[in-house]
Amino acid sequence: MLPTERLDFSAITHRPGLTLPDAARLAVWVIVNVEEWDPRETMPRTVLTPPAGGAPMPDIPNWAWHEYGNRVGFWRMIEALDENRIRAVLAVNGSAIGRYEAIARAALERGWEFIGHGFTQKNMQKVADERDDIRKTT
Fold first, then answer.
1. What's the whole-number mean pLDDT along residues 3-12?
2. Is-above-0.85 flag for pTM?
């Protein structure tokens, strides 16, 4: 479905003004991504340039930076969010809920909302059966 088939045009100059709760002037939406990448597949995006211009398989350097986030970075972020009483949203791959159960549990205990973020982290334009991926994710 094209965006034009589901979203009517609406000029911002013809919409009612946005009123935030408690007359707040700023809204911030904190979304924490938790992804599971298959190291046997081509990385959907890379942070580190592959050595010698090639794409090694498995791409351990780029796989490792995401894994660091799940093992260390997430827990540092959750500590900062807790200290500031900020409830985030967890954008999570369906497969990551089982693989990183402690992360999912920590978010659930804090009352975070969960957003389906595909079944595993991959280039969604190359997924053969989108509906199946959505079904597995939910």
1. 80
2. no
